[in-house]
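Service request form, structural biology core

Requester: graduate student, group of Dr. S.
Request type: structure prediction, single chain
Budget code: on file
Notes: please return the result as structure tokens.

Sequence provided:
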Amino acid sequence: MPNKEQEVLLRVEHLCQYFKMTKAVDDVNFDIKRGEVFGLVGESGCGKTTTGRSVIRIYDITSGSIYFKGKRICAGTRSYEQAIRAARKELKKSDEEVPASRKEELKKEIAENRKKIKAAKYDHQNSDKEYAKELQEKLKADYEKAKEENKNNPEALKKLAADFKQDMYVAKHSKLITKIQMIFQDPIASLNPRMTVKEIISEGLVINGIKDQAYIDEEVYKILELVGLTREHAGRYPHEFSGGQRQRIGIARAVIMHPDLLIADEPISALDVSIQAQIINLLNELRSELGLTIMFIAHDLSVVKYFSDRIGVMYFGKMVELASSDELFAHPLHPYTKSLLSAIPLPDPHAEKRRQRITYNPLESHDYSVNKPTMREIKPGHFVYCNDEEEVQLKKELGL
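Core staff response, request fulfilled:
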């Protein structure tokens, strides 16, 4: 388990991703600490993949904020715009309905939300530029220091200047978002059939401004061997490989960029069971060797338990429970989590016969007509989406 004092690598605050009237992700909050595997589970259509795609900026988020390495990389403005509209509507009421002191508060609220919209748009558009600028400043400082140390060595100075020019070019083209990489669910659909394996894996390096062909070749060969393929595979096309091998190519394409965060979007669901174990073991090895942080999206709860440090459970766009892997399986609290866990098949046929399925019907399980639910910490590190009455009941259930 990761140490509680670990650095938070990714923080998601009030993430909303709407597609017209469909609330695919609605007010989701979580963080991922450096070095851990964060599992995201739930049934098809619950918003798991949309959450991952929003984090990596495949979608522009509707509202909320996403922070990566302490910098806001995604920001939506709808919540601020709605607050401004509500305040304006209240301002239009007569002085008898809304006193002058309240109207002054509303004007300040509108001004504050306008500032937030401006800041959100700036961060969303300029996070990569700010990151590239920081990299260049650091390179300049290191170059000046190295020049001073080697001022009496003309050969070393010449090499330093050449390396500095190349590094500055790469830094100028660098983006913070490339430090997050994604492994997609369908390996064949995510690979360009017209490109060789070498071209597919090296594409990110080329886009980032690396021109040294010898360096690119060596990196590709090294990554291929790291994921369990060989150098000979570099010149082949995706259709020449099996499903498991294609997924290894997809992993290699992500890992070659030296990401801090890897989003694995159901990377094993399209593969045979025997191959699934190989891919999970490969991700575990890469996590240890490269110090990766992984957001693991999956349906198979038994795999998630084995692979994840903490697990978030999603239902209809909402995060309904979040806890450590052991805690979630030992003490599931939300009715939907209990339903999911009851669906895990058992390898023992006699036990399987006795297994009782728990069905989840939100209308029967909850009454939110008056007291609305929020995400609450029932015990340290264990969060559940519930209202006041349910919180009391859950604490009583745990003997707290």
